[in-house]
Amino acid sequence: MSLIVCIGSASVAKIAAVVRAFGRYPELWSGKGGVEFICPPSSITSTRLELRRTDENKNISHKSSEDISGVGKNPLTLGEIFAGARNRSLYAYEYATKNKGSCDFGVGLEAGIFPVKETNTGFMDVSICTIHDGTQFFLGGSPLFEYPQKAVNLILKGVEAGALKEIFGEGGKGRKGVIGPLSGERIFRDEFEELAVLMALCPIVSRQLYQNEAIIGRVMQ
Questions:
Q1: Which of 96, 139, 167, 188 ranks highest by number of CB atoms within 10 Å?
Q2: What is the predicted pLDDT for the residue at 169?
Q3: Stated pTM of the model
């Protein structure tokens, strides 16, 4: 039976990020014959990773889904961003368990800005990933960056960053995201989100190291 990964989003960039991140760890799915990715409330085209480069998996499609984050479209605190990611992963896990009969991992990604007094604008942007296996939540994050002040001002008024076409162009909501133009096209949104997924996967792919750390911690207490 395939490894079942349910992604709590219909965003093409987020789906691509999760597919590529899991594709880096064949030890998670090669023994199961592949991995199947789905997302609520509508399933995407089944994408099975086998022993080949993940960038060859170009048959991803998606349908619109309801907002399952439980937070606003513009999270403005780190706590709210973490809550959105957690809610997405939990919803995804429960959806797949109910509709597929099982789920190995529910994955949630949430982005937003949060206050950092040391910055020029007062805020930084981050993407948080939460992976839920039915028992635990594993967390990871992307690099941090600042928006231009005019973008921060509009975001604080409720405008989504990706909708700021006058600043970021037409691709703000697509694969490039806002980080595309800000980085001089050196990194795109799906690559940025993938880093958050990879960080959340660390305790999963290196369980023994984390278990040993827990044992050592108990001994030292």
A1: 96
A2: 84
A3: 0.84
